[in-house]
Request: fold
Amino acid sequence: MPEVPVSSLDPRHQKLIENARVAIDRGNLDYTLEVTAQVLKIAPGCLPVRKLQRVAQLKQAKAKSGFMAKLGGFSTAPFMFGGKKEPAKQLESAEAFLEKDPNNVAALRMLAEAATGLGLLETAAFALDAVREIEPNNRGNLLALGEAWLAAGKPTEALKIADEILKTKPMDADAQNLMRKSSIAQTVTKGNWEGQGSFRDKLKDEAQAVSLEQAAKVVASGDMTQRLLDEALALVVKEPANLNHYRSITQSYQKLGNLEEALNWVRKARQVPGGGADASLEKQETELATTVIEKHLKAAEAAVAAAPNDPAAKAKMDAARAELADFKLTESKRYVERYPNDYEARYKLGSLLLELGQTDGAIGQFQQAQKGPQVRVASLVGLGRCFKAKKLFDLAIMQLTTAKKDLTQMDDTKKDVIYELGACFDLMGKPDAAIAEFKEIYSEDIGFRDVADKINAFYSK
Reply:
């Protein structure tokens, strides 16, 4: 079972993890724990997700009080069952214990053992490193952690562990042996001596070595970018099925500012076997296409600004605006059809539909989007605006009132909600209820929109 990055997950799961990261910053630990547990069932080898889960577990444990929470790190519950399990079942058991007590040392060791059995070597090191945080002076665990890092191909980390032990016990034979093995492994890794010849000997020539070194730099000069582009164009002819060449070409064109060609090559990449199902390429194509259309619109707007009385220039600008709106709507609909449980995408689609005056369609999307915790309030506001547009003011007030209650801080978002609420009361012919809402904003921010004018007008009557 391989360890995988978040980028290799299904786009829906990537979005969930992104939302979970936001949720943990906002203190919504239950959501983060629910999402990470869900994703880890499908991809137990996704270490970034497991790390995120542990952060949430530790925060939750810290928030809890009570005797068991304080002594949980020394629980021996996992050993009550006796005997070793299959690695997959062992992993499930360890996760269950850690869900109740993330400081359970025995459960962390069980996680490390299960991960090793499943070939998840970095996950095993992660579990043993968590034990080190709880028991920093546990020599046996430190040695096991060093060996785990070594097995995971991280000799530098293993060296740090060996050095840590030797600082307190300079003559520790096991730590010296770990230091020796780690030093050799580090040298092999840096020099790449496992094959024949050195790193540069394996390259075809010095020019290629320079190209690879320059490609690794964050910023390349225009000349170097053009050189890398030319080389990638030559390579794609030799290896037309290698998606990496297409990515290099796309990136180079982007750096050179030629977005049209960058988009062209992303589309070519999506025609290559494996490219059509690549979520990152799909996303890049949409983003580049949007950027290209926006670029054309800006040029058209600049032309109108330069010649405001030119009907041809205005027609071109209107066409560019219509093209951008149509493209965004089409892509948004397509994405929602493909990933119906992506509630943030549903919210964005609802917003586009509302902007285009397709109110009923927007209502349907906002109603579905409410299921997503991250866009729940925004979706309620969207519904309120939809009902307001349809002059269903009582329904609009219901949605906006719920959104207002969910917002605890009087920031611009809450002020917007209260303002919409006041406007609905005003349109219903309830000036007293309307002014009560506007007063809430006025008492906090006299400069928000035109609330000062509304308050002054009310009291001048």
